[in-house]
Write a structure and sequence with these properties.
Shape: rod-shaped
Structural class: mainly beta
Strand content: over 45%
Distance between the termini: 56 Å
Helix content: under 10%
Mean pLDDT: 86
Strand order of the largest sheet: 1-6-5
Radius of gyration: 23 Å
Number of helices: 0
Length: 92
């Protein structure tokens, strides 16, 4: 879970490259307020970037991400290992 209030869904980028998961976001806003005596301008810029090394057991092809109400949820599914068939060993 990534808690990021104030960010829009389109501000996020989630990428996987060579077992490295990178989550980043950038947000920029400008606000102007004019009155008879002054002009006020506010500029706000926020960004973050986090990288995580993925274990070999993670299936990078099926990673999913969902954003809802300021929380980004990244689902990292495990690889489904081929079921090993039991092997009978003959006694000599």
């Amino acid at each position: 879970h990534v808690v990021a209030p104030g960010f829009e869904k389109d501000a996020f980028q989630v990428a996987v490259e060579k077992n490295l998961l990178t989550i980043s976001a950038a947000f920029k806003s400008e606000e102007d307020a004019k009155t008879e005596k002054f002009i006020r301008r506010e500029h706000r810029f926020q960004s973050f970037k986090r990288s995580f090394t993925l274990d070999d057991a993670i299936d990078a092809e099926h990673i999913e991400a969902r954003y809802n109400n300021g929380i980004l949820v990244v689902l990292l599914p495990k690889k489904t290992e081929a079921a090993e068939t039991p092997k009978q060993i003959q006694i000599q």
